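Entry:
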Amino acid sequence: MHKLLMFLFLVLISIFLNVQAFPQENETIAIATYYPSPLGIYEQLVAQTLGVGDNNDDGSLNGNDAPDPNDAAQAGNVWIHGRVGINTTTPQTRLEVNNTFMITPQASNPSFPSGTPEGALYYNSAGTFKYYDGSSWKNVGAASLGAEEQKIINVWYGPTARDLKCSTGYVATKIILYTDNRCIQGERMCDGRCHEAGEIHRIGLVCKKLQ
């Protein structure tokens, strides 16, 4: 009888241990991550902010090289130390795009959190590139013109065409040829006569100040 009881006890212990060896419900396993992250290929990577390289040039990689996700002005930012190549593995400048790219037109001058920085560039809905020179927005590839002046010479005496020029800081925008047959009041004609119709007797320039 004693041996039978011992046998039954051992069987129960064995059953109990086997049951405990199998999980009875789903478990959640947390895997610790390490910084810097290990090398690898990721199918999907989502980050609130991202820093690449030693952005603050302190000689080490740390949290100060990435935007602060708790700073509303930095949330979603990406800081990159070095060159960025799109469709190229050998970028020659800070940003190189090996293909076409598009700039979405803006209806008005953009605004910036800390004021407009000099060198800012955008494409407006009128089809013009504009840049900020530190004081105002200017069209790219075209000088901004201001005040107008006119320079006129009489070709019948004195000055010649080479003497016709705009003042320093001005650029010619139009040439005017005077061909009427009236006398010019208050001006001396070298031949003492009025000009005939069709004769060019004065040449003028319309000049505008470069800004």
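The CA atoms of residues 153 and 160 lie 8 Å apart.
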